Amino acid sequence: MRWWNGKLFVLGGLLLTPGCMDDPFDFGGPRSCEIADQNEWVYGVMQHVYLWRDELPEVDPTTFEEPADLVRALRYDVDRWSRVSDRQQTDALFQEGKTISFGFGTRRDPDGRVVVATVHERSPAGEAGMKRGDLIEAVGGFTVEQLDEENLWSDIYGPHEPGVPVSLVVASSGEAREIELVKDWVDITTVPNVEVLDVQGKRVGYVVFSSFLEPALVELNQAFGDLVEAEVRDVVIDMRYNGGGLVRVARHLLNLLGGHAADGEVAYRVEFNEDLRDQNDVRRFSSSKNSIPDIRTVTFITTRSSVSASELVINALRPHVDVRVVGTTTGGKPVGSRHFAFCDKVLAPITFQIVNAEGFGDYFDGIGPDCTASDDLFRPLGDPDERALAEALHLLEMGTCSPPVEDEPTTPRRHHELQLHPEAGELLIGYF
Q: At residue 188, does pLDDT exceed 70?
């Protein structure tokens, strides 16, 4: 029985009555925090809000050991993201920009070596002096070769909680040293680097943007205030490691980049499943004092780790501004989640798809680059000679891609990477 207009649902044998009669997404909580009641509540919510609700299999939710197991069993074939997360850690990540971490991320170079790609300055790794370009030679007493052969990467860094130690052998400038790190709460700097570069007399703003989290609203305003003051008209946004975040932060970045050029025009549309189509929404550009006036070009640097809200910004901006993409193909997530808190957890099912002003939003295979460039792990981000940034600047100066380098891979190798906020995984288009 479903009374859509009367806000009463009987789904999967569970009576769901929204906690707020005016909010079709408010379902209160389960009858209790017993696992069976949690599972039944999760199953009922999924049957109402899931983007692919018509594809949900019929299951007995009480047979699953945890709500997370149930959600994995319910996911549609293209859905890699719907999940259940720890409530405290999820709230800390999205609202405060805090995560439990060692504070570094890695990539594989073309030779298969594990290279440090990112380090949070205010983190155990940062305090230990780790930096981009360091080589990881061993973790927990195992060499990289042993970790690969025995498939130990998923467990070697221990559980996701403060106080977990790890020993690393790190090589820097040819010298190896052993480092002991302990996981702790880390404050994420969402805009770690802002520069104004000179490219043949053009002032080009360069912004490294790491995560679409609540603190980014202030950090982006500060960064773009500097760019406006410097009178830049061309902007490079480096989102090569940006796994997404809050839609409202994506909307804010869109307004900073395209607010003047497209003020009042459609930025994107949010589309829910057929039963919730009356909740579909349209978001328009709006200018602010920190929006770039007379913007000429926006170049995004991307990799497979550029996902979710990162792709939203690229796709939504394209119909309105001269947008270029440099690097490698993005991860491919044109969908997002609403968060449903219950007990000590958060349910984040895929609930909507986002399309741009032209109605395009089918990029499950990712957004391809206009000019290909690999991630130059042994140069700091912001170095004009770093391959991806150098390619972006070449494109700005010459209007064409540079000639391909024969020994440079055109696609990234499969790699292990340490997520800077692994509890959230790719569940990174959230509240809006």
A: yes
CB 305 within 8 A of CB 322: no
Q: What is the pLDDT of residues 290-345, one digit of tens each?
A: 999 999 999 999 999 999 999 999 999 999 999 999 999 999 999 999 999 999 99
Are 42 and 346 in contact, with CB atoms under 8 Å apart? no
How many other β-carbons are positioned within 10 Å of the β-carbon of residue 267?
A: 26
Which residues have CB under 8 Å from 417's CB, separation 6+? 105, 106, 107, 117, 305
Q: What's phi and psi for 170, nearest 5 deg?
A: -120, 130
Give the count of beta carbons closer than 10 Å to the beta carbon of residue 77: 7
DSSP secondary structure letters along 200-221:
TTEEEEEEE---B-TTHHHHHH
The predicted-structure confidence for 358-378, as pLDDT tens digits, reads as follows 999 999 999 999 999 999 999
SS in 3 state form for 256-319? HHHCCCCCCCEEEEEECCHHHHHHCEEEECCCCCCCCCCCCEEEEEECCCCCCHHHHHHHHHCC
What are the strands of the beta sheet with 2-3, ordered from one edge? 2-3, 8-11, 14-16
Could you tell me how far CA 5 lies from the centroid of its own chain?
35
The kind and range of the H/E element at 194 are strand 193-199
> Which residues on adjacent β-strands are paired with residue 180?
167
Q: Is 97 helix (H, G, I), strand (E, B) or coil?
A: coil
Q: What are phi and psi of 92, to 5 degrees?
A: -65, -40
Tokens for 215, please give them: 């603190």
**Token reading at 137:** 């030679």
